[in-house]
Amino acid sequence: MQQEIRFATFNAYNLGPPGVKLYDNLAPLTTEEYEAKVNWTAQQLDLLDADVIGFQEVFSQAVLDRVLERTQRYRGAHHAGFDPDPNCERLTPSVALVSRLPLAGPAVAYPNFPVGVTLPPDSRDGDRFARPVLHVQVILPDQSRADVLVVHLKSRRPDYRNGDSGDDPLLYAMANLRSLIRRGTEAVALRVLLCALWRDARRPRIVLGDFNDVADSVTTSIVLGAGVGGQPGAETADCMFDSKQIQLRQDQLCYLGYTKIHEGHFMTIDHILVSEEWHPASPNAIGEVLEVIYLNDHLLQQRAEVSDHGQVLARLRLYGA
After folding, report:
1. Is 22 in contact with 59 (CB distance < 8 Å)?
2. Residue 163 CB coordination number (10 Å)
3. What is the pLDDT of residues 280-297, one digit of tens each?
4. Secondary structure (DSSP) of 19-48
């Protein structure tokens, strides 16, 4: 039985077809730029060599298929994902999942918040995620199943209204607050989804995503369930854990991991979260996190075709016999 399984998260940075305008301030890709981006993404996937990969910023699932065709390791992999809704007021990227492990069934998208979670009344799309969460059941090598969620929470980009700009300090601050409120609300909604999965199925859970915030931020802590008390003997049952924090390999090199450079600041905003089944201190552990690796050398290259995020790879091991 295969004991090591590898999970990764990959923000593909505006992966879309050539000639299509994705944002008002972004020129469409030329044919040459598109070919370079597809080729680099395929090479990076082969370098990752992960069994399951969650993608963010996918504007076209068909383009992701083209990427897979140019890889050496993923030509026969399962691909799950949904294109952005063409009827939406604004074109937004979606997420996707590619797996060399078998899937237990079709993927499910969660565009709407769970009941009871909502943004303030004056918010746009106050009852839904900016990018729907993708849920796939993956069959592990021991034939058990794991719930894998791919997420992309709201960015830190200011949420301006009615033609506002950053010229006014108050309007700029309020625009940043609106972004924070949306990201925080999406974190609450994701937390509720994870709790519901645990109550309904009691399967291992793994979250692959761009959280647009660091691991010890308030928003990420909400998803983790940090500080939540459980029943005696089951204190960790409903919690999630940052795989970097519980990896077996703890040395100085692990602190060099970052996935984003913004205005000269090095940050890790892409994370792989795991449930207690991968925590070595849990009585319900079925495995452990061996190591978390960051592929980020390309962030310093400043090439147009590369992603503006580093990739995160978590090596997990099933205990087995």
Report:
1. yes
2. 5
3. 889 999 999 999 999 999
4. T---STTSPPPPHHHHHHHHHHHHHHHHHH
